[in-house]
Amino acid sequence: MSVTELAHDQGAAVVPILGRPPQVNLLPPEVRSARGLRVLQRWLAIALVAVLALCAAMYGYAALQRSDAQDELAREQQRTADLQVQIAKYAELPQVESALNRAWTAREMGMATDVLWAERIGAIAALLPNDMKIEGFVVDQPSVIDPEVASGNALRFAPTGAISLTLRSTVLPDTATLMETLETMPGFVSPWFSTAEVAEEDGAVFYRVTLSVFVTQDAYSNRYLRPDGAGTTEGSDG
Description:
Layout: H1 3-10, E1 13-15, E2 23-25, H2 29-89, H3 93-110, H4 117-127, E3 132-140, E4 161-169, H5 175-183, E5 188-201, E6 204-215
Antiparallel strand pairs: 1-2, 3-4, 4-6, 5-6
């Protein structure tokens, strides 16, 4: 009986080796299976260790990411707290701005009808003839809470006040020319003649004439508007 036949009879494995005669493994199948199982167990153990190592690495990475996120959250919370401290320093600013706006509004409303009468009367005096001067004037101008002065003529421009001038002249005045002169001035409309008389003072005879003219919004100084308001103009006090 050959070696190969003997191995087959005993259940042994014949392992042919190139250049060598066949070799026979006479170990029982149970031993070979046990050895194969141990090899498999060893590889399974290695795989389990690798999986555990990978899980540990992933857990460490996740913990690191969580730590970074917590640090970032802490920084943002501290930044928010710092901003709140800064905001608290300016907590009164909205109240101050509101009070300032109310003051500006009250000033605008209270001085909405302001007219620089010194400049207006001076401009009128500059346009009068050399032999005529202003003896007196009376302003009839409502406040912001009073009704406007009625013009008595629905076709006239709605006035906001009126001024009555008493003029003194050494010669007979040309009232028509005076009324035309007044109407050319901005803020004055619809002048009218009131009275004329001959008077005497210290032996000197002169003429006294009374003229009136309506005042419009064009005469307003607008000097009390807030700096960013439309139509603001600069003006001197007085």
